Amino acid sequence: xxxxxxxxxDGTLTDPNEAIDSHFMHWLESWIPKRDxxxxxxxxxxxxxxxxxxxxxxxxxxxxxxxxxxxxxNGKEAVLSxxxxxxxxxxxxxxxxxxxxxxxxxxxxxxxxTGLISFSVVGKSxxxxxxxxxxxxxKTSKERRKIVEYINEKFPALIAFISGxxxxxxxxxxxxxxxxxxxxxxxxxxxFIANETHTLGNDKPLAQxxxxxxxxxxxxxxxxxxxxxxxxxRKEP
Length: 237
Known about the structure:
Elements: E1 2-7, H1 22-31, E2 36-40, H2 45-52, H3 54-59, E3 62-65, E4 70-73, E5 76-79, H4 87-99, E6 110-113, E7 116-120, H5 128-141, H6 143-154, E8 158-163, E9 167-172, E10 188-194, H7 204-211, E11 218-222, H8 226-233
Parallel strand pairs: 1-2, 1-10, 2-3, 10-11
Antiparallel strand pairs: 3-4, 4-5, 6-7, 7-9, 8-9
C-alpha cells in the first residue's frame, strides 16, 4: 500500500502568513520528489506560491486550495465552485465588524476565495504585531469561537472554522477539506499532517472523515508548527 502525504500549509509548513523557512524549504525540495505529496489549504494558490516557491509546489502531485474547491496541477487551475456567500451572512459579518470590542482594523476584512470566504476582524493586511495583539485578545474573549458557533447554528447550509491566527473560514457545508478524499482510493495509505485538527479548526473535517475510513488506512499527525513537522518527517522512512 503506497503512502500519500497530505499537508496543510499555515502552521504546518510555515508560520502563519509567513514564508517557509529556507532550510526547511531546501530539505523538502529533495524530500518531496521521492514521494506522493499533496497540499490541502484554505488559502489560495496565489497566496502560497510566493511563500513556498514554485519549485516546491511543482514537485507536489496536486494542490487542493480554497479547502479543495480549487485544484492546481502543473500551475493550472480547475475551478470546482462558483459559490458566493448569502446576503444575510454578509450582513451578520458587517455587524460583527461594527460591534467587536477589538478596534484595530487594517482591512481587507473579507477575502473572497474559490468556494469560500475568509473573514478577519483585524484584517488580512494586519502587521505581525497587530495579528499577535488580536490573537492574545481572542484567547481571552473567545470572539472567533463565538462567531463560528453562531454561524454554524444559524446558517445550517454553511460551515465555519477557526483558521490561522486571526481568521474564520466559511463555506458551504460539505465543501470543506473533507471533500478531497474522493480523489484517493483504497490502495493508498493517507498520512495527513496539519495543525488545526481541533473541534473548530479548518483541518478537522478532513481528519474526521479519515477517522471514518475502513481498514485504518490513514494517519492524522497533529503538529503545533512547522518545526514539529520537520522533526516528524525526518523520522519517516
